[in-house]
Amino acid sequence: MVRFKNRYVLCEVVSEDARCRQCIEERTVGLAVRDAIGRVHGDYGLACCSISFTVKYLNAYTGTVLLRCRKDSYRLLCSALPFVRHLESRGQRYPCALHTLHVGGTIRTCQKFLIRYNQRQLLTLLQNCTNEEERRCVRKSLLSCSLTEEQSQSGDEEDDGSTE
Known about the structure:
GO biological process, one term: rRNA processing
Keywords: Nucleus, rRNA processing, tRNA processing
Largest sheet: 4 strands, antiparallel
Low-confidence stretches: 150-164
Structural class: alpha+beta
CATH superfamily of the largest domain: Ribonuclease P, Pop5 subunit
Function: Component of ribonuclease P, a protein complex that generates mature tRNA molecules by cleaving their 5'-ends. Also a component of the MRP ribonuclease complex, which cleaves pre-rRNA sequences.
Shape: globular
Protein name: Ribonuclease P/MRP protein subunit POP5
Order of helices and strands: EHHEEHEEEHHH
Number of domains: 2
CATH architecture of the largest domain: 2-Layer Sandwich
Number of helices: 6
Radius of gyration: 19 Å
Strand content: 15-25%
Distance between the termini: 40 Å
Subcellular location: Nucleus, Nucleolus
């Protein structure tokens, strides 16, 4: 049996309208991306990308979106993302853009990249703070950035040692 390889495209929804991030849903992003692929690459591109295209993760608060597609057609997907100009939700259109942050072979590599990216963003926020209270809040956020899986693995090792 043959394993189908996928690519994961990590994107950020960039919008000046704050309501845009509150109203986005996986279905809305998926339809907007499919529409852009159809406009840019036609039926052929849409058929290639639709085989295993899905929105794997969406965080409306941070505007982070993780898209999955086949390895063969990820370039078609990436080239169509700049043509997403708005998201339509509940009968309203919100102007926005999708900014590609990272393309990876696994969800795990995208998670690692996102953690490093958020740490860099927090460092720039730290440099732009105006008072000490803002600095303290940003430092706390910066120090709390870590993978939860690593923390749970270290806890499991301790539990295994106590049962023997």
